[in-house]
Amino acid sequence: MRPRTDASRLPRDFFDRDVHAVARDLLGAHVSHAGVTVRITEVEAYGGVGDPGAHAFRGRTPRNAVLFERPGSLYVYFTYGMHFCSNLVAGPHGQGAAVLLRGAEVVDGEDLARVRRDAPGKPPVPARDLARGPARLAVSLGLSRPHNGLDTVAPDCPVRVTGRHADPDVPVRTGPRVGVTGPGGEGDSYPWRYWLEGEPTVSAYRPGVLRARRTQP
DNA sequence: CAATAGATCTTCT
DNA sequence: GAAGATCTATTGG
């Protein structure tokens, strides 16, 4: 038997490339943390400064500072008052580009993922929904604020990114990014969402919608 | 099944 | 002050 080649951590060079190449090649890769391993089936590319849909669009701020760290860094942000989403910073260094992890299949540690995802008194979450959607994925992996900024390339990093691109026989599909409003969302200019065709763990497409006001106009 | 509203709070303008 | 790279429950067809 040949030793498994997908057990090694993806190196800096993997991440220090164009964000679209990194996004495509992350499909089928594995991410492990805190006893759970997932296989990535859906991602989105965010181009950094110059990409109207990206957090880095208006340059570096305290919140998005990690986007400007070394490629391979983990950018975890808090949104909608209750959810965390995770990204892997891509190259070139300093541009602010990153790949949002949007959907994955739990391939190890399903019991742990279930503990994190199941709500008391409610029916159990179907297996395919454990990491379907960026916030659900972060919950299954146990990722939140303290993990922001971790360097996944480092040998001792608790977050491991392993494996390579997807099975060449499985087509990669592309489309507009989910939940992005205005320029950078729908339209032909930013079909920057990538997923593996036929995977049940790919999140449902939902156009960006402006939320209704909470207060009087 | 599709559409919508509510939850909840950080961030930047 | 307002919007946000979301999720869930609920309502309506």
Automatic annotation (TrEMBL):
- E.C. number, please? 3.2.2.-
Q: Name one GO molecular function term.
A: DNA binding
Q: Where is the composition biased (Low complexity)?
A: 171-180
Q: Which UniProt keywords apply?
A: DNA damage, DNA repair, Hydrolase
* Membrane-traversing stretches: none
Domain of life per record: Bacteria
The reply to whether DNA damage figures as a keyword in the UniProt entry is: yes
Q: Alphabetically, which GO biological process terms does the record hold? A: base-excision repair
Class of enzymatic activity (EC top level): hydrolase
* Location of region: Disordered: 162-185
Stored Pfam families: Pur_DNA_glyco (PF02245)
Question: Which HAMAP family does the entry link to?
Answer: 3MGH
Q: So what family is this one in? A: Belongs to the DNA glycosylase MPG family.
Identification of the protein by name: Putative 3-methyladenine DNA glycosylase
Question: Organism source for this protein?
Answer: Intrasporangium calvum (strain ATCC 23552 / DSM 43043 / JCM 3097 / NBRC 12989 / NCIMB 10167 / NRRL B-3866 / 7 KIP)
Lineage runs:
Bacteria, Bacillati, Actinomycetota, Actinomycetes, Micrococcales
